[in-house]
Amino acid sequence: MKALQQHFTAHRSHLVSDPNSSLREGDVVRIAPGWRASKHIRHVVTEIVAPWGPPVEERPPIPKREEMDEERRMKREAKMERRAARRRGESDGRESGEEGPTLKERHTDVIGGPEVVGGEERVVLEREMVDR
Known about the structure:
By secondary structure, the protein is an alpha+beta fold. It has 3 helices and 3 strands; from the N terminus they run E-E-E-H-H-H. It has helices at 65-88, 103-110, 120-131, and strands at 16-17, 28-33, 43-50. It has a 3-stranded mixed β-sheet, with no helix packed on it.
């Protein structure tokens, strides 16, 4: 505050990624910038400096940076393989000859009924019902 000529520390809170759920509320941790885990989570826990509650040995281990990078790379490769297979028209794990759910079935499962569906999708559903 300038009028009193005093300085106050500004505390900053960061949301961090904890892949193994090793942290407990109150832990003092060391973080490092990492990839974007969600809209607001951009840091990764690297070490528990001072645990609060159960000791660090009783908790799941915090993965090393290389392990997290390798896991992320493997997930990305698997996703790209699934995408390439889908684009080639290969089976996506369903039994042969079995078709996927229709638009009406998907909305009934997710929303609870076709009457909730809005916009252009409702027109498509109404056309499907008229055609039957």
